[in-house]
Write a structure and sequence with these properties.
184 residues, alpha/beta, Glutaredoxin, 2 domains, 7 strands, elongated
């Protein structure tokens, strides 16, 4: 009987105290930290800030600067030839490029592949209708905090990063196009 009373008290403590403490922690994280100007769950510190400038080579060896597209909205897409979701996304980006190039959207596709030779071969077999750049040393993907592929950023005309997406995205669906339209 004493043992059963002990177990019942322990269950009450666990079933009531633990959820209350958890709730208090959640409230502290969301209310307390934002009161001090700290976002409790930052998805990316670059969102809302100016996109880091860069100069990369295209597949012909020409230097391309992000700053040269200031005044135009940019979809900055990081990918690799070995990434199946990046390959799947290619046709969506090609279609988006066809539909938005006359409106001024610039698609910069940044390959994170280490081998330029493999990248060129892949591009011969799977062409892109938009500009492909090489970040073979990973400097630019690091500056944009790229943690998974494919990753895409939407940058407005003023050069501010408005959105970031990690993973495959259907760029030709209505939701994606509405986001693109907000950049104009």
């Amino acid at each position: 009987m004493l043992y059963q009373n002990y177990i019942m008290k322990q269950n009450i403590i666990v079933n009531i105290t633990l959820p209350v403490l958890t709730l208090m922690c959640v409230i502290f994280l969301f209310v307390g930290s934002t009161a001090h100007g700290i976002h409790p769950l930052p998805l990316d510190a670059n969102i809302g800030k100016e996109a880091p400038g860069f100069v990369l080579n295209d597949l012909s060896g020409n230097k391309v600067s992000l700053d040269s597209f200031r005044g135009k909205p940019v979809l900055l897409n990081f990918w690799a030839t070995w990434c199946p979701y990046c390959r799947k996304e290619r046709s969506h980006l090609n279609e988006l490029h066809r539909d938005y190039r006359d409106k001024g959207l610039v698609i910069l596709s940044v390959s994170t592949d280490r081998s330029i030779k493999k990248l060129r071969k892949f591009m011969t077999d799977t062409p892109a209708e938009f500009m492909v750049l090489s970040d073979s040393d990973g400097r630019i993907s690091t500056s944009y905090n790229i943690k998974g592929l494919p990753s895409s950023l939407l940058i407005n005309r003023e050069g501010i990063i408005k959105h970031k997406f990690t993973g495959f995205r259907e760029w030709n669906n209505e939701r994606s196009r509405k986001l693109i339209d907000t950049l104009f």
